[in-house]
Amino acid sequence: MSDVDFSGVKAAVIAKATAETQELHNLNDRIKAAAGDSSKINDVIDQTEDQEIVAKREKVKAAEAKIKELKAELVEWAKSQIQEDGFDLEAAQKTLAEKKTATKSFLLQSKGMLEGLGLSNEEVQEIQDLLDNLPGRTLAGSNASGRSPEEMTRIRNWAKENGMEVADRGRIAADVIKAYEDAKAA
After folding, report:
1. Could you tell me which of 67, 68, 65, 46 has the C-alpha nearest to residue 57?
2. How many helices (H) and strands (E) does the chain have?
3. Residue 137 pLDDT class (50, 70, 90 cuts)
4. Distance between CA atoms of 113 and 107, rounded to whole angstroms?
5. Distance between CA atoms of 78 and 81, rounded to whole angstroms?
6. DSSP class of residue 173?
7. CA–CA dist 152, 172 (Å, integer)
8. Other C-beta atoms within 10 Å of 40: how many?
9. Which among 148, 153, 158 is positioned nearest to 169, based on CA atoms?
10. Which residue from 2, 24, 97, 136 could staple onto 143, CB 3.0 to 4.6 Å apart?
């Protein structure tokens, strides 16, 4: 190619692409607002200076604070009902962390030994399931997605009783677990 300067063409194409993209974003924002997108609605409520709306907004904030306070009281009451007398939370957390490390190590060694014996991935899946379902971290940063073997059995039994297909071993589909949790919560 010759020494042709295409910077003007490039600038025009970029300007047109930017304008088209912005138009698309604007239309999307209008659709969200018309459909009642909560972030747009909250922006309008939070930014208005209409005294009637400001007063209502303050009432809502006060009510939310009271609800939070009442929930905290309920949680503390429930903890007092559940917690064993003399239960040492810090010691229990330390024991859990140590036992989890030891159990994980045992499971990994067991899996390696079974694989070393030439067993297939499907045959070793039960060990992998146990690894995948170790209890999560405790308290802050809780990741309590781990389920005990007993709970996994309860979920499998419930699913089968309710006509859902679930294998006797291996992972349980997320939609089955959600249905189980929804039924349990109802």
Report:
1. 46
2. 7, 0
3. low
4. 10
5. 5
6. P
7. 8
8. 15
9. 153
10. 136
DSSP state of 141: T
Within 10 A of 128 (CB to CB), how many other CB atoms are there? Answer: 16
Non-local (6+) Cβ contacts of 156 within 8 A are: 166, 168, 172
Q: Are 164 and 155 in contact (CB under 8 A)?
A: no
Q: What is the pLDDT of residues 71-86, one digit of tens each?
A: 999 999 998 888 888 8
Distances (CA, A) of 2 to 12, 13, 75: 21, 21, 76
| Cα 124 to chain centroid, rounded | 28
What is the model's pLDDT at position 141? 35
- Write out the two tokens for 14: 């970029």
What are the pLDDT digits (tens) for 140-182? 333 334 677 778 888 999 999 999 988 887 778 888 888 998 8
**pTM (2 d.p.):** 0.41
